[in-house]
Design a protein that fits this description.
Elements lengths: L5 E2 L18 E2 L6 H10 L6 E2 L4 H11 L7 E3 L1 H5 L3 H7 L3 E4 L9 H4 L2
Parallel strand pairs: 3-5, 4-5
Antiparallel strand pairs: 1-2
């Protein structure tokens, strides 16, 4: 059984003389069965999207680990979509794979097929 957390480096090591005093990143690991469940849904023709309040970078990382965010997929967070014209948002919806909870009202079946 994996540990209840994972510790990963935030970035490549800084140049000599510019070393941070400390840094720690903790992340709950993706449950082992999630990537296969996502793959099963996709094989069945189900479009899988992740709606989360996480920071967009965290959300993208998790969505990639789960097999939700793929090449050409799009992740949008609230501040970006709030200023976007509705026509532009509707045009991007088919590529949307990771979204801020405020976007969920735009992801109805009717809107996805316009």
């Amino acid at each position: 059984m994996p540990p209840p957390y994972a510790i990963r480096p935030l970035a490549p090591a800084p140049p000599p003389g510019n070393t941070p005093k400390w840094g720690l990143l903790m992340q709950d690991p993706v449950r082992q069965e999630v990537p296969e469940a996502v793959a099963t849904c996709k094989r069945a023709g189900i479009v899988v999207r992740m709606v989360t309040g996480d920071n967009v970078h965290t959300a993208q990382h998790i969505a990639r680990e789960c097999g939700i965010l793929t090449e050409g997929g799009l992740a949008l967070e609230g501040p970006n979509f709030r200023t976007m014209p509705e026509q532009e948002l509707v045009r991007l919806l088919p590529r949307l794979q990771v979204a801020d909870p405020a976007l969920s009202s735009y992801m109805s079946d009717e809107c996805m097929h316009e």
